[in-house]
Amino acid sequence: MRHQESPEAVDTADAMDTVHALRAVTVQLALRSSEFAQRNGMHPTDVRALIALMDALRAGEPVTAGRLGGELGLNSAGTTAALDRLERAGHVRRVRDPKDRRRVLVEVTEGAVALGQEHFGPFIEAAVALLEGYDERERSAVRGFLHGVLRAASHSEHLAPPRFR
Known about the structure:
Elements: H1 12-39, H2 44-59, H3 65-72, H4 76-88, E1 92-97, E2 100-108, H5 110-131, H6 136-154
Antiparallel strand pairs: 1-2
């Protein structure tokens, strides 16, 4: 799907510069995430779990352990281990679903949200400030591109299998 009014050929060098910039951003975000995990005595999977839970909170969606494990690509034992670590650290709590008392939901605590805001807040503020320099059409194009890249990265058929030498 193109987000331009008049389609034009993409310059390969320009496109690769964009892809390489995206890769560099990905590496930097991974480093910041690892730094956050280390600083707070967490496993990298714990940070991914917190991000998934915060995304669900923002979207107003309840999360079960099974759903969280599926999003993280973990089996039941791995999900339980991550949730146990996060619960012991006070970052999540397990609560009964008010609509179905048989079901247990996982919620991120306010303390974990504050901890994430403390670490990632300056980056988020800088990103928002950058977006203020773009008009709505440009912001829409950026969102469309990022959502498209996310879709491509989420589907394994777009990724080559690892090569071992």
